[in-house]
C-alpha cells in the first residue's frame, strides 16, 4: 500500500507569514480526486493507482493510464489530483527512478523533487494536456497575488509547501500546510436522527478512538440524498462551537476516497502559526 502525504491545516492569517518566507511556495488547493500513481516497468501490472487513504483505484481511468505509459523505463511514484475534466495535475513526486538513474526519493527536499518533476513533465508530456504540473508561486508578490486571486474566485484554498521538506507517506507533515477559504469538514454518517429521520447525524473520531457527534445535515440536500450509513461527507459550516458542534453544516459532498477512520476531531482545530514555526524551527 502506498499512502500520500497529508497537509496540516492553518488559518488564513498564516498565509501572510508564509508568503514572505522565501522557504515556502504556494499552489492552489484543488477539489478533485487525490491519486498516487505508481509506474514500474519491472512490475505487473506496470501501473497502479492509489487513493487518498491508500485504496486501489478501480476502474482505472483509461486516458490517464495511456498518458502514464509514456514514461521511460524505471520506477515512478507521482502525486497529484485528477480533475473532472480528466486532467491529472502533478504537485509532487515521492520517487523518480528512471532506469539506472535514481533522481529523487522521499528524503529529497521538495525544491529538488519539484525541479526534477518539472523536467520530467516537460520531456514526457509537453504535448499531452492530460498531465500537467500544478503552477507554483515562489516570490512574496506572486504568493500574495495567488492567494488573493483564488480567494476572489472562491476557490477552495491554497497549499503551502516548504522547499526543504521531505515526503512523509501517510502522515500530516508540518512542511505542507493547507489554508482553506471555506470552512469544511470530513465527517461520516453515523445514523439517522431520531426526529423524523430527515437528517443524518455526522460524527468524527477523537484521538482516543471515541466517536464524537458534531452535527446534523439534511438528507434532502446535496449528496446526502445518496449517502448511506458510514459514508463520508464533506460539509461546509460556519463555526465550530465550544460544545463540539458545527454551526449550520451544509452542502454535503460524498467523499468515496475517504474512510470513516480518517474523519478526525483535530480537523476543527487548525495549527497555530506560532506553534508551526516552533515545529519547523523557523
What does this structure look like?
With 282 residues, this protein is an alpha+beta fold. Among the domains are: 31-133, 2-Layer Sandwich (D-amino Acid Aminotransferase, Chain A, domain 1), CATH 3.30.470.30; 184-268, Beta Barrel (OB fold (Dihydrolipoamide Acetyltransferase, E2P)). It has helices at residues 13-19, 62-68, 110-124, 140-152, 273-280, and strands at residues 6-10, 24-28, 33-40, 47-50, 74-82, 88-98, 131-133, 157-162, 172-180, 184-192, 199-205, 211-218, 232-236, 250-254. A hairpin with a 6-residue loop joins strand 10 and strand 11 (199-205). The two termini are 33 Å apart.
CATH class of the domain at 31-133: Alpha Beta
N-to-C series of helices and strands: EHEEEHEEHEHEEEEEEEH
The CATH H-level homologous superfamily of the domain at 31-133: DNA ligase/mRNA capping enzyme
pLDDT averaged residue by residue: 90
Main sheet properties: 5 strands, mixed
Q: What's the number of extended β-strand segments?
A: 14
What overall form do the CA principal axes indicate?
Answer: globular
**Spans where pLDDT lies below 50 across 5 or more residues:** none
Strand order of the largest sheet: 4-3-5-6-7
User: How large is the radius of gyration?
Assistant: 20 Å
The fold-level CATH name of the domain at 31-133 is D-amino Acid Aminotransferase, Chain A, domain 1
Structural class by helix and strand composition: alpha+beta
Q: Helical content, roughly?
A: 10-25%
Number of helices: 5
Gap between N and C termini: 33 Å
CATH architecture verdict of the domain at 31-133 = 2-Layer Sandwich
Percent range for β-strand residues: 25-35%
Amino acid at each position: 500500500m502506498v499512502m500520500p502525504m497529508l497537509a496540516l491545516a492553518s488559518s488564513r492569517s498564516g498565509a501572510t507569514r508564509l508568503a514572505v518566507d522565501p522557504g515556502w511556495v504556494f499552489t492552489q488547493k484543488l477539489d478533485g480526486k487525490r491519486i498516487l500513481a505508481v509506474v514500474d516497468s519491472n512490475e505487473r501490472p506496470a501501473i497502479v493507482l492509489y487513493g487518498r487513504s491508500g485504496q486501489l483505484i478501480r476502474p482505472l481511468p483509461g486516458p490517464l493510464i495511456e498518458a502514464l505509459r509514456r514514461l521511460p523505463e524505471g520506477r515512478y511514484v507521482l502525486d497529484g489530483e485528477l480533475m473532472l475534466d480528466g486532467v491529472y495535475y502533478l504537485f509532487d513526486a515521492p520517487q523518480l527512478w528512471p532506469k539506472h538513474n535514481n533522481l529523487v526519493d522521499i528524503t529529497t527536499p521538495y525544491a529538488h523533487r519539484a525541479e526534477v518533476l518539472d523536467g520530467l513533465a516537460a520531456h514526457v508530456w509537453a504535448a499531452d494536456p492530460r498531465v500537467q504540473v500544478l503552477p507554483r508561486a515562489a516570490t512574496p508578490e506572486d504568493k500574495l497575488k495567488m492567494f488573493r486571486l483564488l480567494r476572489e474566485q472562491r476557490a477552495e484554498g491554497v497549499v503551502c509547501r516548504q522547499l526543504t521538506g521531505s515526503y512523509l507517506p501517510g502522515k500530516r507533515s508540518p512542511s505542507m500546510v493547507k489554508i482553506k477559504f471555506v470552512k469544511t469538514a470530513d465527517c461520516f454518517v453515523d445514523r439517522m436522527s431520531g426526529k423524523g429521520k430527515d437528517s443524518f447525524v455526522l460524527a468524527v473520531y477523537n484521538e482516543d478512538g471515541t466517536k464524537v457527534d458534531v452535527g446534523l445535515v439534511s438528507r434532502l440536500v446535496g449528496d446526502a440524498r445518496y449517502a448511506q450509513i458510514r459514508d463520508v461527507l464533506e460539509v461546509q459550516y460556519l463555526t465550530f462551537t465550544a460544545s463540539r458542534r458545527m454551526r449550520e453544516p451544509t452542502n454535503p459532498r460524498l467523499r468515496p476516497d475517504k474512510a470513516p477512520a480518517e474523519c478526525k476531531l483535530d480537523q476543527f482545530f487548525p495549527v497555530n502559526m506560532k506553534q508551526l514555526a516552533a515545529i519547523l524551527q523557523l
